[in-house]
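In full, the data:

***
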Amino acid sequence: MARYTGPVCRLCRRERMKLFLKGDRCFKEKCAIERRAYPPGQHGTRRGRRAQGYGIQLREKQKVKRIYGVLERQFRLYFKQADRKKGITGENLLVILERRLDNVVYSLGFAASRAQARQLTRHGHITINGKKVTIPSYQVRADEVVSVREASRTNAFIRASVETARGRGVPEWLELDPENFTGKVLRLPTREEIKLPIQEQLIVELYSR
């Protein structure tokens, strides 16, 4: 599966906001946004024209893709899937993205970033209902139990991430048992429980052109 392998701090700078793509570094003074809060490249410091219409819609789509670590082809498939479902297309899209296994692993605190959660999943450290799942895009369902494999619970990175999660809390639709490195999907997320600064209607308008 193709994935972005370039410097992720450039992505945050391009969107002019923290996308929390690099774990603990995003909370420190070394964060690129703290040091250089302007787009990358030789023209980044220039004051350009304010984006309008298509430009605003495109930037919103790019931002959401980068937050969840999804490339264009898969994102477009997710949009088509959301459009076929009953309800509001934009909200359906966000729920689909939130239900990705790598996002759930990150939200439960088993990883410091979604990229790290994707790696843990690929390497077989994560189980669902006791069975190993190595597909980061797997769509979790209500009442499923997501756990760190017992042999991986001594991993220093995982233990540190879980301690951090205990302090910040987890989304209301998930339940974390930090002592046993286990989380449960209580229900599917609602739009109100997705706290990310996303204007999903702009993405719907972009794909509806």
